[in-house]
Amino acid sequence: MINKVVSNVSEACKGVDSGMTFMLGGFGLSGIPENSIAELVRLNVNNVTCISNNAGVDNFGLGQLLQKHQIKKMISSYVGENAEFERQMLSGELEVELIPQGTLAQRCLAAQSGIPAFYTPAGYGTEVGEGKEFREFNGKMHLMEKAFVADFAFVKAWKGDEAGNLIFKGTARNFNPNMCGAATITVAEVEELVPVGTLDPNQIHIPGIFVQRIFQGEKYEKRIEQLTVRTRN
Amino acid sequence: MALSKEQIAQRIAKEVKNGYYVNLGIGIPTLVANFVRNDIAVEFQSENGILGMGPFPFAGEEDPDLINAGKQTITALPGASFFDSATSFSMIRGQHVDLTILGAMEVSQNGDIANWKVPGKMVKGMGGAMDLVASADNIIVAMMHTNRAGESKLLKECSLPLTGVNCVKKVVSNLAVFEVLNGKFKLLERAPGVSVEEIKAATEGDLVIEGEIPEMTF
């Protein structure tokens, strides 16, 4: 067994520096690497580029890095629900690259799997396609999109073992598996870290080879963005 | 009478057929699930990673690890599955999803759609909309016919930044149902009590009106 365990979040973030590019898993606030984000805030790294589907809300998730002006550029598909983000973007303080959600996922997957570029129809004929190579396949136009290049990927899983094997829960899975192994160093934080041999190999979502460092998060707030319920009749 | 948002959703629900996998956008499209017949088998896909999405949870049973693409808490029905974002968009781009229903700010008569950006004002992003409209074979737009200023949202050409080109097949507005055909809006049905003249007056894009236009049924 190759042991991937680090003792805490500060050891997990060793080597993180200003000016780097980070990938961060999560959809909205679901499945975000809460502990790693808190450490990035504490380390006060700045001028960073963040690849993340969303930008958190004003006081939680990536919104915390935005409040401290640590982010130079965001690469996302949807950034509503964050007033400070909108302010920094419209004033030009924050560089923003909005890309289609499926393209974002596939650019992560391409980086994970050693595919430098791929073609997708998403965004052809829109401003997303401006300046990009395009090509016709089967009578339909496609854009060439490139794999991401990133220094760190921060992902969050439900359970993980000492070998870095990961299991996700519900829709908190989202971009997390696609970002594993897509950066130079992948840091996985888990709600429950177990000894090897505990997890059923049939049920592993991400094999440990894609993970360099794993730790159990100290606590998880798991904030709900839009609480919607029905009443019993 | 022009339709309410619920009635637009109710009319669109008639387009959902037995055996369909359906992706619903945010807004009016989300309401469609409430009106689908319960004697047919339909599965709803949410692009953040669930197939077999169920209704909202009962109070106290909400799970932060179980949300839809609108970030609302949901439930999973028996037979549901969870998956990562890349797999989700393989379902979408690979045309495994049978029907996509989404909202729009503008639709043009050649089937272009704009729904993600108002330059200088509103920039929330496209989310999964560009992937959906670029690949789906069967796209229905649910929208109010006019904007708050009373101007037509069914146009000759979109004025806002596009989400996709040549992709919308059908539009259900609060006034009428249209098929996008040969670069024009072909009028198929009228909202109950809404005249063809009223629809003409509210539509900037070119219309095709052939014979008697029936009223919608629900």
Describe the structure.
The complex is a heterodimer of chains A (233) and B (218). With 233 residues, chain A is α/β, with parallel strands linked by helices. Helix content of chain A is 19%, strand content 25%. Chain A has six helices and eleven strands. In chain A, strands 1, 2, 3, 4, 8, 9, 10 and 11 form an eight-stranded mixed sheet that branches. A three-stranded antiparallel sheet of chain A has the order 5-7-6. In chain A, a hairpin with a 2-residue loop joins strand 6 (134-137) and strand 7 (140-146). The longest helix of chain A has 13 residues, at 101-113. By secondary structure, chain B is an alpha/beta fold. Chain B is built from five helices and 15 strands. Chain B is globular and about 50 Å long. The interface between A and B is large, with 60 and 55 residues.
What's the quick description here?
Chain A is α/β, with parallel strands linked by helices and 233 residues long.
Tell me what portion of residues of chain B adopts beta-strand conformation.
Answer: 25-35%
The spatial strand order of the largest sheet of chain B comes to 4-3-2-1-5-10-12-13-14-15
**What's the total count of β strands of chain A?**
11
Give the radius of gyration of chain B.
17 Å
The protein's oligomeric status is heterodimer
Computed CA radius of gyration of chain A, to the nearest angstrom: 18 Å
Could you give a short account of the major beta sheet of chain B?
10 strands, mixed
Query: Count of helical segments of chain B?
Result: 5
Number of strands of chain B: 15
Q: What's the SSE pattern of chain B?
A: HEHEEEHEEEEEHEEEEEHE
Record keyword descriptors for this entry:
heterodimer, A: 233 residues, alpha/beta, 8-stranded mixed beta sheet, 3-stranded antiparallel beta sheet, 11 strands, globular, B: 218 residues, 3-stranded mixed beta sheet, 5 helices, 27% strand
Which helices and strands appear, and what pairs or packs with what?
The complex is a heterodimer of chains A (233) and B (218).
Chain A: H1 9-12, E1 21-24, H2 34-43, E2 48-51, H3 63-67, E3 71-76, H4 83-90, E4 95-98, H5 101-113, E5 117-120, E6 134-137, E7 140-146, E8 152-161, E9 166-167, H6 176-179, E10 185-194, E11 213-216
Parallel strand pairs in A: 1-2, 1-8, 2-3, 3-4, 8-10, 10-11
Antiparallel strand pairs in A: 5-7, 6-7, 8-9
Chain B: H1 5-13, E1 21-24, H2 28-31, E2 43-46, E3 50-54, E4 75-82, H3 85-93, E5 99-103, E6 106-108, E7 113-114, E8 117-118, E9 122-123, H4 129-135, E10 139-142, E11 154-155, E12 170-172, E13 176-181, E14 184-190, H5 196-202, E15 207-208
Parallel strand pairs in B: 1-2, 1-5, 5-10, 6-11, 10-12, 14-15
Antiparallel strand pairs in B: 2-3, 3-4, 6-7, 8-9, 12-13, 13-14
